[in-house]
Every structure is written in structure tokens, then in C-alpha cells.
Structure of DUF2520 domain-containing protein:
Amino acid sequence: MIHVVFLGFGNLNHHLFIALSSAKNVVIKQVFNRSSVDSSSSLLKNVPCTQDISKLMDADVYIIGIPDDAIAPFSESLPIQNKLIVHTSGGVNMSELSNNSRRGVFYPLQTFSKQREVNFKNIPICIEAENVRDLELLRKLGECISENVVGIISEKRLKLHLAAVFVNNFVNHLYAIGSDILNKENLPFDLLKPLISETALKIETLSPKAAQTGPARRKDQKTIDKHLKLLENSDNKEFYELFTKALKNV
Amino acid sequence: MIHVVFLGFGNLNHHLFIALSSAKNVVIKQVFNRSSVDSSSSLLKNVPCTQDISKLMDADVYIIGIPDDAIAPFSESLPIQNKLIVHTSGGVNMSELSNNSRRGVFYPLQTFSKQREVNFKNIPICIEAENVRDLELLRKLGECISENVVGIISEKRLKLHLAAVFVNNFVNHLYAIGSDILNKENLPFDLLKPLISETALKIETLSPKAAQTGPARRKDQKTIDKHLKLLENSDNKEFYELFTKALKNV
């Protein structure tokens, strides 16, 4: 059995908790959170919760799920030594964790919102550790919930995280722009959903370059000019111009 | 029965042909294409094909599927009069069709690639016509293949098309950037696919604004600076800066 303590109970640890609590071979020993978590919820009814960092229980792995900036000072403040402490961030180097402990990373490459359930089975879990035994433990822990556990060092993980920002945060902002354009016309955003879905599905079988279509790709300047005219005085014009320039050169 | 002639057999008409050929109440009378189409393919074996524009058969609706720029002159050159001629483009005003004929638009809002089958059932088909009877005919034709037929005038359709460019062409370019970043690290693009899929699924239940996460949204300048450092000397830096500026202001 792998004994786990959660340090922080934000978005990501909340989802990890749900996934790991139904995994065989995992015992969630405790949840620490600076502010009180709603321990009356059925989710936490069988797990001890604490706001007192001095009362951490013994475990095989401590999973930090707090804002990136807070990871280094928080890990330094932990009153435990020589334990395996991992963070769950894409953008934080493993070396930012305090060296009072054995250090590791357990980064599920996915976007998490409290309102949405996620299935971890296909989510890549990127693991890293200072020593081989800890890496093996993290691999076992990852494999309790995902079929896609990969060892990736911090430098590569940051690049993966950068790519994730492009295909998630920035893509989602383009959805927001599309939604705004339709809202102004009193057209429902639903009209775009089959297109959004097909765009994401297409790259399961085609490379993004092979999947590309549209006026910029076919250098259809007449349509581009019509669009630019609609975007006069809009903040979105700069996006349109930048993408169009890039796509014409592909 | 609705009798249809296809004018042009590019990507979109190819897919429309497949969908309409299995629809009840539709007879595909003929396919015209300037260059020869492979009429030996099983797809076309029961449909007369011609490269001679003077030999068009009689039909209820003629569906133009050719590049946007060519639509106006081509419709002017058609040797038929007072027939219902529709184009299938998002960005071309209905009035660009020759007024020798009754004009209309039959625009399926989707991205089409020859290599990928599409299911028309959920695809919005945006229709427009000069007179009510033709609009009714186009609605009937659309409903043979889709549950989502909507009447939209040219001016609104152009805005819908603009929004589609943002959520499809530009989104796909972000996928390409993500893919390039991973390629350089010898990491498989597959690592990003669950994230891409979840990003598209999320907005089925959350608005894009509610779904937004990431360093720019939470104003995590430390992570942003790490990413910008990785993008030094990259064409993609401009994209990163533009999105980050926009997301910080959301």
C-alpha cells in the first residue's frame, strides 16, 4: 500500500484526491490545508483533515498542490525530513523544493476545474525524482490512476508546460473570442461547438499541419480583407493579423 | 424528391455528396467538375458526371462548391436561368451570385478534409435565399442530413465565419505550435492530446471564460517569465505575449 498525504486542497489536489481515493493500493492518510476544508462533505468524511502543519502524519509520499510561487517557501517550512515530497506543477523545477526532503514531481498534464469531473486514465502523469526508488514509487502511484505515466526531467517538463499553455489556455481564449463575436450578433455559441469538437478530433488522425484549412492557409486575401474590415477597432484584430501572417507562411 | 446537381467537386461538395447520396428524398442528378473526377470510384458510379457546362441537367437546386473567388464569375457563366443556385461558402455574400438565377446559400459550418469522414447530423447548416419558397426547399434539403438547419443572412454569416476562423484555423495553428515545441524535445505530440480533447470538451458545459486557467489568467509572472525565456528568438514569442496580455486583462 502507498500512503499519501495531501498538502493543499486546491483544484488539482481535489481531483487527484478523488482519483487516488478510489485506487487500489493507495491509502490517503491525511489532508492538510491552510484554510479549513469542508470536512463534512462526503468526499472527506473518512480522511483526517488538519490546518496544523505540525500535525502531519507519516506517509510514503506528500503531494503539494498549491500555487507555483508558494511551493518553494512552503516546502522549506515543512516540519518533516527525509520524506518524499512532490509538487504537481508543470512550471516549477524539482530543485525549487527544499532539500530537507527527498524531492520529486507528480505532474498530471491536464486542465482542471472544480466543476468538471476528469477521468485520469488517459492523462499523462509526468514524474521525476532524485533517486531511482522514489521514481519507482511515483510510477506505481501514477499507474494506480493512469495508463500514461512518463518520466520527464524538469527542463523538458517546462517545455511541455509551455506547449500545454498554447494548446489549452490560448486555445480557450480563442474560444472566448469566438463566443464574443457570436454574442454580439445574438447568435448562440452552440453553433460553433461541432466545429470546435471536430477541430480537436481531427488532430487525433491528422497532423495539425495537414489538418489546416481556411482563408489564410489558401491565401484568400479577399476573405481576409472582409474579416479585417469586421475587426476594425477590435482588440481581436491583432490576433487575426498575427495568425494570418503565420499561416500564410506555413 | 429534391433533385440536386453539384457544381464543383472539391472538399466540401465531396462531403456533401456523400451525405446527400444516402439521404432519403434526395436524388443527385449530376456532378459537374471542370477537371475530370474519378468517375470509376464507387462513390460516383451511379451518378452522371460532366466537364461540359453546357450539358447541365435539370434540377431543383444547383450547389456550387468552388473557391470563394471563383463563385461570382462562375455563377455568371452558368447557362441556366431562373433556377435555384446556392453557394456553400461562409465568407461570400449571397448577392455575389449572378442574378440570372434565384440565389441562395447552403453553408455547412464545419472543417472538411478529404481524409476525414464527417457526420452531418450535428453540423449547423446555415441557409439563406431570396424568396421564401426557396428558403423552405433549402431547409428541407438541409434537414435531410442535419438536425441543425438555421436561417442566417449574409452579413451575420460573415461574422459567424470570422468566429469559425478563430476557433478552427487559429486553434489548429496553436496545435501546430504545441506540436513543434514537443518535436524539438523529441516528445510525442500524443502527450498533448488528452489536454486538447478536454479543452474542447470543457466548453460544452462551461463558458470559455469560466473554463480559463493557466499562468496568464492567475497573473503568475514568474512562470510567464520562464516561458518567455524559452521563447527567445522564436516566432512564437509574439503569440505568447499577445495572449498573455489579453488573458491578464480578462
Chain A has a mean pLDDT of 95.
